[in-house]
Design brief:
Blueprint (H helix, E strand, L loop, with lengths): L1 E4 L3 E4 L4 E4 L2 E3 L3 E3 L15 E2 L2 H4 L7 E5 L3 H10 L5 E5 L13 E4 L3 E5 L6 E4 L4 E3 L2 E4 L3 E3 L2 H5 L23 E3 L10 H22 L1
Parallel strand pairs: 4-15, 6-13, 7-8, 7-13, 8-9
Antiparallel strand pairs: 1-2, 2-3, 5-14, 10-11, 11-12
Length: about 210
């Protein structure tokens, strides 16, 4: 799909071309993952992508956070008040911050996540293992901002589309909502923002008549 901006917007899909006075981008975000044996098989069985959503399932447990940058630190901060221990799993990468209170940092490369019905341990490439109750994947979230960037929309340093409290971007007639603008990645938040964006778009069209 492509979007072009002239006096109006032209949205080009594989089958049709649409013209509109306004467009709402609700393209979501794409989770970054990594090719480690067992990660796909154990998703939802101890491997999670959202500390805000799933932290309380691991209350008092020992968990790991797979990642080494700001997003991983954000997830760790969400987990610390709830779980027993947190280990940052950098998978061979250098952590951006080594002096994080109350957490261990494991920099060894991971060979496999293992478990029968749910994750039970991590095997590293040096043949050592670590018992674990859960792993939160926090390698990063890449917002679907390519469409917006091509239209000249301002993108923040986390690759999210920048909007005001009416979900307006800096491009006239273009609005955005949901995961692509960042913040807490929750359905309830996205629904609320979608309502605001829809109302703002209606008001925009009325003014432009």
């Amino acid at each position: 799909m492509q979007i072009e901006k002239g006096k109006t917007f032209f949205v080009n899909t594989l089958n049709h071309k649409y013209e509109s006075k306004t467009v709402i981008l609700a393209t979501g975000s794409t989770k970054k993952t990594v090719n480690i044996k067992g990660i796909k098989e154990l998703e939802g069985r101890g491997i999670s992508y959202c500390a805000t959503c799933d932290a309380y399932f691991f209350k008092g447990k020992n968990v790991g956070v797979l990642g080494n940058k700001e997003y991983a630190i954000h997830e760790i901060e969400q987990l610390l008040p709830i779980v027993s221990t947190v280990t940052m799993l950098t998978n061979g990468e250098e952590p951006i911050e080594k002096r994080l209170d109350k957490i261990d940092i494991e920099e060894k490369r991971i060979r496999e996540f293992r478990g029968i019905n749910r994750i039970e341990e991590i095997e590293f490439e040096d043949n050592t293992t670590k018992k674990i109750d859960g792993v939160f994947v926090a390698i990063g979230t890449a917002s679907s901002s390519d469409l917006a960037r091509k239209l000249g929309v301002v993108i923040d340093d986390k690759d999210n589309i920048k909007v005001d409290n009416q979900m307006k971007t800096n491009v006239e007639g273009l609005f955005a909502c949901g995961d692509c603008i960042g913040g807490v990645l929750q359905i309830s938040k996205a629904v609320y923002e979608g309502m605001i964006a829809g109302m703002s778009a209606i008001e925009f069209v009325k003014i432009k008549k």
